[in-house]
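Re-running the complex after MR caught last week's input typo. The corrected sequence lines follow. Everything else is unchanged.
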Amino acid sequence: MKRREILKGLTILPLAGVAVNAIANQALTEETETKNSAVDEWLPKKELIKTPAGSCLRSGHMLFIGGIGGWYANQRAEPGDIKVQIRSVLSTMKGILEGAGSSMSNVLKIQMTVAEPNKNIPALNEAYSEFFPENPPVRSYSGSKTSQMGRDGILCQVSCIAYVD
Amino acid sequence: MNRRNVLKSLSLLPLAGAAAAIPTEANAQKKSKKDPWTPKKQVIRKSNSGGNTNPTVAAPAGGTKPAAPAAILSGCIRSGHLLFLSGIGGWYAERRAEPGDIKVQIQSALTTMKEVLEDAGSSMANVLKVHMTVAEPNKNIALLNEGYRGFFPDPAPVRSYTGCGVDQMGRDGILVQVDCIAYVD
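Corrected-run output:
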């Protein structure tokens, strides 16, 4: 390169620097947009999903199902024992999850309220494990008296959080 | 600057632009690959409670280890950046001879929680939500809080609890059961 051209090249460099800065700013903007779109991947923000078995809420990849009672008079004549009730609950849960595009194998967390758990938990567990043969969800429960379940006859109430694609 | 130079500089600009743009695109690709919600569901720990292979609560040396029960539940599950923990009881007979009071029990449960979280790559500082079942809360909650304080650095997780009678905790002796949802990197 001739000396004259080198000098010319030098005068251009600061300009190129400005241009790079401008591009960098643009890159920053793009990055921010990428971040925003990543945040936006948490969709839907909150959506009510209605299925024939019942409703649930979806937010991002999470599904939330509210407490399902072990007995509803309009569904079954007799309340039945805890095994009947937990099977009824988990069948309903299965229906809602599948209706919402998820499944029992995607359940992450279960919360239960159980009447007289000292008496009822072993029988409940027997029926419960039929529904989660592999990689069962985490679980916790609160116990109460039969007279504190909200209405007579009901022995358990179960809610869950599940993953959905 | 004369016209010839201006033209030269213009010819250089697109090149500089192209050079600067390439790394940005690469970063964007990396980012979008990392962002999807993974894992969908991963069992991190099979159990937090007694009678299992969990080293945290393994039977004392020389003691007979109870047969592993059928897996009713998992101890810790990861989904995306969230960890879900099963209810941890304040007392397990295979871990401690005496149940102890509510303060002993909450400290025991939260110590187990800390171990489970740290094993999973998280920490007590990342706990978002705590739920407790407390026996006779009107009597026990003040003492529970004494034991609870100090386990969580600021800001403490949100918390809720359900109270019940001592004979409604699932088994005799246990006074508290606590579960949580935590963030994990």
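None of the earlier attempt is carried over here. Chain B touches chain A through 51 residues (CB under 8 Å). Chain B has two domains: 1-35, 42-59+73-183.
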